[in-house]
Structures are given as C-alpha cells and as structure tokens.
Amino acid sequence: MAAAAGGAGGGGGGSAALGDSGAIDYSVHEAWNEATNVYLLVVLASLALLVYARRNKRRIMRIFTLPPAAETPPEPNFYDSMKKIRLRQQLEMYSIARKYEQQQQPPKQTESVQLSVE
C-alpha cells in the first residue's frame, strides 16, 4: 500500500510538476490567444479602413485638397479687390461728373421749369 501510496504520491508529484508546466503552457497559450486576437483585430481594422478608403476615395481626396484651395483665394481676392477699386474709382468719377453737370445745368433747368410753369 505504501508503494501504491508512494506511486500515487510520485504520480501526484509528477502530475503536480506536469501541472506546473501545464500552467506555464496554459499561460503561454492564453498569451498567444490574446496576441492573435489583437493581431486579428488590427488586420480586420486595416481591411475595414481599406474598404472604406476605396468606397470614399473622392471624399478623402476632397479633405486633402481643401487646404490648397483655401490658400489660393488670396490671389483672386487681390485681383477682385483691384477690380472693385477700379469700379469704385469709375463710380466716383461718374458721380463727380454728374454733380458737375448738375452744377452747370441748374440755371437752364430752372428756366425751363419756370417756362413750363408760365
């Protein structure tokens, strides 16, 4: 019985040692599973981004092309402002000419008005 107990004890000790290595193996397997799960998530996320990029290529390109479009308006704005300045000058000259004509014309206009009243 003692031999059986020793054998059982030896077997138990052997299984305990095996159990310890089994625990180590289990932790290695658990770590491997977690790592592969992380890699799987990374791969799936990359594939999802790739599919999204292919479907929305124009939207993505529009996002990246906006800053140059935002930087280019200063040049047209410069020319637009020059056109506005020129137009303003023309309007001022026109208004000055109209005032000058009105200053030259009033006596004739009042006479014609007086004539029409009489």
Task: Explain the overall architecture.
- By secondary structure, this protein is mostly helical.
- Helices cover 95% and strands 0% of the residues.
- The chain contains 4 helices and no strands.
- The longest helix is centred in the N-terminal third of the chain and has 54 residues, at 2-55.
- The radius of gyration is 47 Å and the shape is rod-shaped.
- The termini are far apart.
Outline the fold blueprint:
Elements: H1 2-55, H2 57-71, H3 74-104, H4 106-117
Structure at a glance:
This protein has 118 residues and is mainly alpha-helical. The chain contains four helices and no strands.
Keyphrases for this structure?
118 residues; mainly alpha; 0% strand; rod-shaped
Main sheet overview: none
Query: What proportion of the residues is helical, as a percent range?
Result: over 70%
For the residues shown, what is the average pLDDT? 74
Q: Quote the beta fraction.
A: under 5%
Structural class: mainly alpha
Question: How many strands in all?
Answer: 0
Molecular shape = rod-shaped
